[in-house]
Amino acid sequence: MPSGTTVKRLMERPTSHPVAEFFSALTDGTTYSPTRNAYAFFGFLWGLPIPFFSIGIDLWATGHAPSLRILLEHPIHWFFLLHPVFFAVLFGAMGSVRRRKERHIQKLIVTLREHVHELASGPWRSGEDPSRLAESRLECHQVYGGEESDRYKRTRRR
User: Fold this and answer.
1) Which of 10, 97, 134, 135 measures 20 to 30 Å from 27, CA to CA?
2) Torsion angle, CA of 45/82/33/103, rounded to 10 degrees?
């Protein structure tokens, strides 16, 4: 990472607009995969009651027996039948955006940990206690739940 990069710069929000993020997620193949994106499956399930209730209420109100004739008499029901697919796409795109954001956050966490380890193992001014370096490394190690970055492992071997 360039030395001019600051933590403030790393923590800035992405410049893309939420609507643009949503539409870019529609181009991602995992958006539509119910096996790789649980949000798409959940969206499909969330949309299932809409056609059942819309057709059921229409049948109940008119007193007709269930048949495909109702779809021909009232074409609006075709729109309601597509709701599970619409919801699957909508929720799938939201899941893809969430997955992208989580990956970005994980990259920021790794970068931040590496910077903390750099600071902890950085040059100490003369006159300071050298045992403080070991203490700060131990503190960093405890803060991050025992996980060590590659850069921290390299500095520890020295």
Assistant:
1) 10
2) -80
What does the pLDDT read at residue 1? 43
**Dihedral sign computed on CA atoms, order 94, 99, 103, 105:** positive
The number of beta carbons lying within 10 Å of the beta carbon of residue 92 is: 27
Cα distances (angstroms) measured from residue 121 to each of 39, 113, 152, 158: 43, 12, 9, 10
DSSP string, 24-73: HHTT-GGGG-TTT-HHHHHHHHHHTHHHHHHHHHHHHHHTPPS-THHHHH
Rounded distance between C-alpha atoms, residue 31 and residue 41, angstroms: 10
**CA dist., res. 78 & res. 114, Å (int):** 55
Q: Which of 97, 87, 103 is nearest to 27 (CA)?
A: 97
The contacts of residue 106 (CB under 8 Å, 6+ apart) are: none
User: Residue 53: CB partners within 8 Å, gap ≥ 6?
Assistant: none
